[in-house]
Amino acid sequence: MQPEHIIVHQQAATHVAHIQLNRPQALNALNLQLMTELKTALQTLDADEQVRVIIISGNEKAFAAGADITQMAGKSAIDMYNIDQFSTWDTIKKTKKPLIAAVSGFALGGGCELAMICDMIVASETARFGQPEIKIGVMPGAGGTQRLTRAVGKALAMEMVLTGRFITATEALQAGLINRIAPVELYLEEAVKLASEIAAMSPLAAKMAKEAVLKAFDSSLEEGLHFERKNFYLLFASEDQQEGMQAFIEKRAPAFKGR
Ligand code: HXC
């Protein structure tokens, strides 16, 4: 079935796929259907050998203004428990390929959390990041208190979560939340440029390196170092390792295949 709230753009030549959130009339509010479509698209692209890096974007006005408040408003705690919307997020988190969020305009609540579940964030000058759930009587539920705090530190995270204040792209860059800022007419191009640079590397090495960096967030240093070493050794079972090192010795560009 064709998705209704997302658009998937795929160019085999570049190995970069792009999922665009597409509920512009609601500032891309993340209703359950959109999140299910996003999860399914990510699973498909993660399994597609032609795809090496995935970009998630919204539009110029909004990456996503959060979970859909109208859909949540009348729910009871038991409804929320039964719907279990965060299981979708658990699946998204398992995406092995590098994910880049291309953010313009609002990235609020679940929108900010979705950007933060990605591995890198490219923002337009108009991007605004915030966790305003406190203003509607709740709090972040999809990683906002954890990923934001790890990215920007306690002081700013506490302020954003407790006051709902939005931060600008410049403040987000200074705080370490995002990777780079581009003019609004170029931010998507900038995200594609970054994605293409990564897509030229060994896709196996990229997946295993991503896995190892993420390990730093939920393991001790010793465990993380051990995990890193195992992945490093494992890559010596790949053709890409032989190709990469041989190409260096032969002073030519490597042609990685993902095997
Ligand atoms: C449902 C939303 C929405 C949302 C905006 N819209 N955000 N609908 N859920 N999160 C809708 C509006 O109702 C409106 O629809 C249309 O999008 C345009 O929004 P406006 O408010 O008219 O635009 P503007 O005046 O420019 O203000 C933009 C805004 C504001 C500052 C982003 O919309 C806003 O504060 N939105 C809510 C942000 C928020 O609280 N997010 C956290 C949600 S809780 P109509 O039909 O009137 O035109 C959350 C929990 C996460 O994310 C849990 C994990 C998933």
Automatic annotation (TrEMBL):
Reaction catalysis annotation: a 4-saturated-(3S)-3-hydroxyacyl-CoA = a (3E)-enoyl-CoA + H2O; a (3S)-3-hydroxyacyl-CoA = a (2E)-enoyl-CoA + H2O
Gene3D superfamilies assigned: 2-enoyl-CoA Hydratase, Chain A, domain 1, Lyase 2-enoyl-coa Hydratase, Chain A, domain 2
GO molecular function ontology, one term from the record: 3-hydroxyacyl-CoA dehydratase activity
Pfam families: ECH_1
Keywords: Fatty acid metabolism, Lipid metabolism, Lyase
Biological process annotations from GO: fatty acid beta-oxidation
Enzyme Commission identifier(s): 4.2.1.17
Protein family (similarity comment): Belongs to the enoyl-CoA hydratase/isomerase family.
Official protein name in the record: enoyl-CoA hydratase
Species in which this protein is naturally found: Chitinophaga agrisoli
